[in-house]
Design goal:
With about 350 residues, the chain is an alpha/beta fold. It has two domains: about 10-75 and about 315-345, Enolase-like, domain 1; about 80-305, Enolase-like C-terminal domain (TIM Barrel), CATH 3.20.20.120. Helix content is about 35%, strand content about 20%. It contains twelve helices and twelve strands. The strands form three sheets. Strands 5-6-7-8-9-10-11 form a seven-stranded parallel β-sheet. It is globular and about 55 Å long.
């Protein structure tokens, strides 16, 4: 059940617009990003679980949309959020063009372990990012759980020369993350000492938090050094803040290829965190990967930061990116099913 009372389904559907926005580059296999946008009484809100997610996994995303569109946002600790560039699994030659969309960003997260690609492709892509951004930039990688333990250890050893800020979800399970950290903890550190208590590259958990029945399991198990937190999959800002407090680990707030509406939700989460909890630039710049939006004042990086605010819907852009009638029906039926799950929880 959402922290905000669940509105009647008829009211939610009356306030729903479904959009389909092309991506500039294939991202997680997505070339068109579909989302349900609500014109809520508190402001615009978004429901955009990926198409393959079953209803039990998608229902928390609807709870998040209810809270943001019908509830009250928390008190803010800051008015601007530092943003990382997000580099999809593109060729090394395409890296400069991607980075150019993230104006002023000095941190980059690079997608690796893409199906059909090789470790050599990953190394070339990360090398291109490091070369383009310089030695003083922070470079992170995200495998989306795509490696086995052996593949992860091999890859992280090969990528160590690029001085990674952290490796996000190198393997899928908590047990695998523990083993990766164990094996890497015996690697030489930058000080030349072996047998350190921590791995030479920090491990961040994403899917092990947002896709887990128990989002705190990864923290309790000591399987990660920091958490990647996304407001929509965790059921909203309030629920995410509760998880962060209970986990006791630093976090980076990220998004799931949202429109500017969903990015606003993430920005409000990041802005509500105490200073000691926020572990650097956040992954909230992915509107730059979309070829369109639902607002004419996009929430994209300027001088490496985004102002914390809500997106204001543009009726013309909503109409321009309106989904085909059959996709509109599909999303409305999905909302109805998830609404029933929340009502009965």
């Amino acid at each position: 059940m959402p922290n905000t009372p669940l509105p009647p389904l008829d009211e939610m559907l009356e306030r729903t617009r479904v959009v389909a926005i092309p991506t500039r580059t294939r991202f997680r296999g997505v070339t068109v990003r579909e989302a349900a946008i609500f014109e809520g009484p508190s402001g615009a809100s978004e429901f955009s679980p990926f198409l393959e997610y079953e209803d039990p996994e998608a229902a928390p995303w609807l709870a998040a949309a209810v809270e943001y569109g019908w509830g009250v946002t928390p008190s803010l600790q800051r008015s601007r959020i530092a943003i990382n560039a997000t580099v999809p699994a593109v060729s090394a030659a395409a890296v400069p063009e991607v980075l150019a969309r993230f104006e002023g960003c000095r941190t980059a997260k690079v997608k690796v372990a893409e199906r059909g690609q090789s470790l050599a492709d990953d190394i070339a892509r990360v090398r291109a990012v490091r070369g383009a951004m310089g030695d003083d930039a922070l470079v992170r990688i995200d495998a989306n759980g795509g490696w086995s333990v052996e593949e992860a250890v091999t890859a992280l050893r090969a990528l160590a020369e690029f001085d990674l800020d952290y490796a996000e979800q190198p393997c899928m399970s908590v047990e695998e993350l523990i083993e990766v950290r164990r094996q890497l903890s015996f690697e030489p550190t930058t000080s030349g000492l072996e047998g350190s208590e921590s791995p030479f590259v920090r491990i961040a958990a994403d899917e092990s938090v947002r896709k887990a029945e128990d989002p705190l399991a990864v923290a309790r198990a000591g399987a990660a050094d920091l958490l990647i937190v996304k407001a929509q999959p965790l059921g909203g800002i309030s629920r995410a803040l509760e998880i962060i407090e209970a986990a006791g680990l630093p976090v980076v707030v990220s998004s799931a290829l949202d429109t500017s509406v969903g990015i606003g939700m993430g920005l409000h989460l990041a802005a509500a965190l105490p200073e000691e909890k926020l572990a650097g630039a956040c992954g909230l710049g992915t509107v730059a990967l979309l070829d369109g939006d639902v607002t004419d004042r996009q929430l994209i990086a300027e001088n490496g930061e985004i102002e914390v605010r809500r997106a204001i819907l543009d009726p013309e852009l909503l109409e321009q990116h309106a989904a085909e009638p059959e996709r509109e029906r599909w999303w409305r039926e999905r909302i109805a099913r998830c609404h029933r799950l929340l009502a009965n929880s």
